[in-house]
Structure formats: C-alpha cells, structure tokens
Amino acid sequence: MSISTNSTPSTLLGLTPGIWTLDSSHSEIGFTVRHAGISKVRGSFDEVTATLQVSDTLEKSAATATIAAKSLNSNNLDRDAHVRGGDFFDVEQFPTLTYQSTGCSRNGDTYNLEGKLTIRGLTRPVTLVTEFNGVTVDPFGATRAGFSATTVISRKEFGLTWNAALEAGGVLVGDKVTINIDAAFIATNA
C-alpha cells in the first residue's frame, strides 16, 4: 500500500513501528464536570491499560484503552460510591469503559485521534485532540513516548442521566464532561 502525501510517517516523530504499552504509573486519565453550576469536580481513574499499535504511518496506527470503572477517584469516598453505583457507571453490570481508535489525522501541531468510546454499554464516536510530546530513552534503556489529549463529551449520550434539581434553578451535575489524558507509552519491541 502506498503512503499518501497526507500521511505522517511514524518514524518522523521517532515512533518505532510495533506495540507500545501504557506506563500507568506515569499517566493519568482525568475528567472535570460542573457541579451545582458554580464549581468543577475533578477526578481520575486509577486502573487503566492501553496499547498503541504503531504502523509505518500514524494514519494506519491504532490505539486501544480499557478503564476499570470501579477505579474512579474524585477524592471523596461518598461521591465515588455514588458514581460507581446504578445512578451513574453501574460498575457491577458495566465494569469497564473502553476506547478503540478508528483513525488519526494531523491538524496543524496536533492530531485528531478518532475513535469509539464505550461507557455503560453505549458506544459513541469521540475525537481526542492529541498533542505529541516526544520520544526519549530513559536511564534504564526503555524507549518512551508521551501524549496529551483532551475531549468534551455529553454524559447523557452515554446513559449517565442522573441529576438533582437545585432550589435556585439548574441542576447539580453538568452534562458536559471534559476528559484530559496525559499518557506515557513504552515500546515493547525494543
């Protein structure tokens, strides 16, 4: 298959073709959602696995991620228990959130990683606006690549519709959720 003039060779960025695995101890999948219309609640997921299948071009490369829904951490035990329960994630019935890329394209200094996000059994298209942070070899000889990505989703589109009305008007939990990812991957074929 020939490489189109729109293709970005993965080696141009220093990414060796092959499998790269997420270094979860140096990565974070975080989120922010509006609370009571006046502040924001932040949280993250502590159990995430992900791989990059780097091909000869970024456009032919793929990314997958699996997040343990029970690993939600917003630094509030009561809130975390509520969000893990049936009103939100229902972790007993839907233990994972998943992301599977379907394509990647360059957009100036960033990349649009197109994919399918599944939450609570509902799959929707989601574009991660991704920044490539470079490749390095650490003092232990591992080749690492760093990425930052962000997107905004509607929680209602994923069946997360629970809410409570506020006396002054509005609702307790905003619909828009900003997802922020800082990810370090290690080449496993080096």
Automatic annotation (TrEMBL):
Record-stated family: Belongs to the UPF0312 family.
InterPro entries to which the protein is assigned, alphabetical: Lipid/polyisoprenoid-bd_YceI, TTHA0802/YceI-like_sf
Matches recorded under Gene3D superfamilies: Lipid/polyisoprenoid-binding, YceI-like
Taxonomic lineage of the native organism: Bacteria, Bacillati, Actinomycetota, Actinomycetes, Micrococcales
Name of the protein in its database record: YceI family protein
Residues in Lipid/polyisoprenoid-binding YceI-like domain copies: 19-186
